[in-house]
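BUG: 3D viewer hangs when loading the predicted structure for this chain

Environment: internal workstation, default settings.
Expected: structure renders.
Actual: progress bar stalls at 90%.

Input used:
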Amino acid sequence: MNAQPAPAAAVGDITAAVLARHGTGQDQLLPLLHALQDTLGYVPPGQVPAIAQHFNLSRAEVHGVITFYHHFRSAPPARCAVQVCQAEACRSMGAERLLAHAQEALGCGPHGHSADGAFSLAPVYCLGLCASAPALTINDAVFARVTPARFDRLVADATSTQATQAAMEAV
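Structure tokens produced before the viewer hung:
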């Protein structure tokens, strides 16, 4: 899973530290955005001005890069990220039905978060498992030939794993 979001007070300090590790050449923008997201779990919109200033770019240019690449998030991630492939092969094998089931099971729409913040749901295009469609990922683990019933089991497993991790962190 990706990094857990940092407390708001630390975001500016973390951003400054990540900026300090990268040069000011525009070829460093993508590596910096990756490093920031790896550290914070997302690229905070409030840090775009500092990033733009570092690279002598406009805020619009930095924002454009962040929003162009689907990998970058502008909000803290859910604890469990679910991506359901919607490419042609997966759609021909029931991915639309699987996505609809996921929306109902998680209580959120595509590109949304569950009410408790535990899950995010996103349609993606081609996970490379066309021969084993439909496919999805849960926290970057790839699953093939997923039915609605299997989806429910995978979510239950992810939920119990989250509960175990939370209990371990509380000790």
